[in-house]
Amino acid sequence: GTGNGTGFAVEAPKPSGDRDVGGLLSAAGLRMDVHARRVWRGARELELTRTEFDLLELLMRNAGIVLDHATIYDRIWGYDFGPGSKNLAVYVGYLRRKLDDPGAAALIHTVRGVGYVLRED
């Protein structure tokens, strides 16, 4: 026999659609270089603060998945701000202003009473 019995080649090629090649993310028309901390929408590079970048990275890694407020607070700030906090909404507002091209589809959607999701509608 072959000795391993699996029949699978060890050097299986990575699928070309792999979303995290060398720290590069792409979702909803955005591209992100996690290591260089740079983001583009189409050909336009976005100028983001550290928190905005972290928030967008989290949304991009979970593109199409609704993230609730508690999860986002925990991942970005390391603790829960509590239900009365407007902090997250403020940052989402900043991000939306920087992301959204005039006339282009919004990318960050509010799911009322739950949280936010990144997707192209």
UniProtKB/TrEMBL annotation:
Residues 22-120 form the OmpR/PhoB-type domain. The keyword Transcription regulation applies. One of its GO terms (molecular function) is phosphorelay response regulator activity. Pfam families: Trans_reg_C. It comes from Streptomyces spongiae. Residues 22-120 bind DNA. The keyword Acyltransferase does not apply. It is found in: Cytoplasm. One of its GO terms (cellular component) is protein-DNA complex. Keywords: DNA-binding, Phosphoprotein, Transcription, Transcription regulation, Two-component regulatory system. The lineage of its organism: Bacteria, Bacillati, Actinomycetota, Actinomycetes, Kitasatosporales. Residues 1-20 are annotated as: Disordered. This is Winged helix-turn-helix transcriptional regulator. One of its GO terms (biological process) is regulation of DNA-templated transcription.
